[in-house]
Amino acid sequence: MKLPETILAAVLIAFLAGASPAAEQAAAPAFPSPAMAGARQAWDAGQYEKAAQLLQAAAAGDARNGEIYHFLSQCQMELGRYDAAVESAERAVALAPGSSLYHQWLGRAYGEKADRSSWFSALGLAKKTRKEFEMAVQLDDLNISARQNLIEFYCAAPGIVGGGEDKAQAHIARLAALDAAEGHYARGNCRRQKKDFAATDREFTQALESAPKSPERIYDMGDYFFQGKRGTLLEKVAEAGVKAAPGDARAEFYRGAACFLKNEKLEEAERMLRSYLARAPVRSDYPRPAAARLLLGHVCERLGRNADARKEYQGVLRDDAKNQEAQEALRRLGGN
């Protein structure tokens, strides 16, 4: 049955707004030139404007280097410049059409742009997103992240743009054959798109118990369990994250969240959350600083330090002026 236009738009946006939790945030490439090294340092520090400027200067001197445009597209997405990100990603693909990674990230750029587009434009961009993910998988059977993107698209998008859960099954089986954790994640993520949360819980729990290697998949599951206030499972997320990427600050956020949700080791929760705020870049696949400050406010309240709690809630509102939870907490504490 053809979806009415308004419903179709809602379905597309629901999928493309995430575009896509399963996607791996590619590390900024290491280049020999000083400009490229500077761009890498700026990226690592979350200074995306500076990184983009350095990359644009590098492109002026090396216009045939697809890696520059690939990296520039990622910076532009972090800056919210989605038209520019698409343009840069398309340039990267044009320069290196055999790159699975470039096709995958062009699909992501199309998805991000679709989220900010009218329903009619989103329809065309959704089809482009699917085609790029399919090409990425076709070019590299072992690009697990691209296959996860494609599975999510098939499970979330309507048939009019090429979606269909049946199309995902062979890809899920392929991932399960390659890596048990990736297979469980793929099945769980597919069920999440269908709002079958009991099945999602089972598959994600099994994924965490199967030695997952991808920080992005691990911390996407962390987001899911954090939203569900599942403290014990967040501990497993943090443990898996430390094993997969020992220096990743996200483990501290989820460990602090787990302590808060379980109402134990609150001093440790505070230490972890403050360390996260000090170390983590402001990046789309990391918990936002406001989320960490909100947790800190709740932790300080439980520790009986209401003045400190007020400061944290006020910090949340500086980052997110409409955050209702922080507003209510300040009213409760008599602050503003």
The amount of beta strand, in percent, is under 5%
The CATH superfamily of the domain at 1-157 turns out to be Tetratricopeptide repeat domain
**Low-confidence stretches at least 5 residues in length (pLDDT < 50)?**
1-23
Largest sheet: none
What is the level 1 CATH name of the domain at 1-157? Mainly Alpha
What are the secondary-structure elements, in order, as H or E?
A: HHHHHHHHHHHHHHHHHH
Task: Please name the CATH architecture of the domain at 1-157.
Answer: Alpha Horseshoe
Indicate the percent of residues in helices.
over 70%
Mean pLDDT: 91
Query: What is the straight-line distance between the termini?
Result: 52 Å
User: Helix/strand/pairing class, anyone?
Assistant: mainly alpha
So how many helices? 18
How many runs of DSSP E, i.e. beta strands? 0
Shape: globular
How many whole angstroms does the radius of gyration measure? 21 Å
Under CATH, the topology of the domain at 1-157 can be stated as: Serine Threonine Protein Phosphatase 5, Tetratricopeptide repeat
Characterization of this structure:
- It is a single chain.
- Helix content is 73%, strand content 0%.
- By secondary structure, the protein is an all-alpha fold.
- It has a domain at 1-157: Alpha Horseshoe (Serine Threonine Protein Phosphatase 5, Tetratricopeptide repeat), CATH 1.25.40.
- The longest helix is centred in the middle third of the chain and has 21 residues, at 119-139.
- The radius of gyration is 21 Å and the shape is globular.
